Amino acid sequence: NDQEIVRFYENAAKEAAKYQMIIELHGSYKPVGMEFKYPNVLSFEGVRGIENHGGCIPDNSLYLPFMRSVLGPMSFTPGALLNVQPEGYKNGLGSNMVMVGTRVHHIAYYILFESGLQMISDSPRQFDMNPDCRDFIFSTPVTWDETHALAAEAGQYLIVAKRHGDKWWVGGITNNAENNREFDITLNFLPTDKVFRMTAFEDGVNANRQAMDYDIRKQNVKQGDKIHVKLARNGGFAAILE
């Protein structure tokens, strides 16, 4: 973020805007408000994201919504579908490109980490083999009309509800806690005059050991209902209400 690169970013954004082109700045410093002057700049990296593999663990990611995301859009490059718990991770070239955290933990990033341009960091083949996860991720918008923090402690856990149009998304993640975390979330943020169909991705019964284990729950919900959220270690929760 020296003068030369700051000037380059400014010139690139200005020139791209002239030709109605969008920009995502990867490998960049943290955002400092340039996206307000140049709305065609959709996101900045400025974070230790998925490309760091073993260095990008839930214990670190649980601080990002409280610190990094406050500054502006964050290109975290989520979308890892080869998931392990910490003891299953092996670093080094030639090893599987796996990520620490449960499958649902990584899906929930799309709700929790805001970026005007989202990525899918895994192989397209992985998404073809997991169409339910793919379709949920692709249905998650990149802009939001309303946000509610439902449960939060920096570095420990986070559950947030967000609205886009007349649909709601609820995302939650937790760190490498020794025990499962459980929450009863009251859906007070929903409008009074509608019954929603909730499709929720949840950590499976074996997710504390087999991080790719997950279940899908479907049920009707309305304002004032409570939903039970159970997060495995390094786990997550991701739901759409429509």
From TrEMBL:
It is an enzyme of class 3 (hydrolase). InterPro entries: Aldolase_TIM, GH97_C, GH97_catalytic, Glycosyl_hydrolase_97. GO terms for molecular function: alpha-galactosidase activity. Pfam families: GH97_C, Glyco_hydro_97. Residues 143-241 form the Glycosyl-hydrolase 97 C-terminal oligomerisation domain. Keywords: Glycosidase, Hydrolase. Its EC number is 3.2.1.22. Residues 1-47 form the Glycosyl-hydrolase 97 catalytic domain. This is Alpha-glucosidase. It comes from termite gut metagenome.
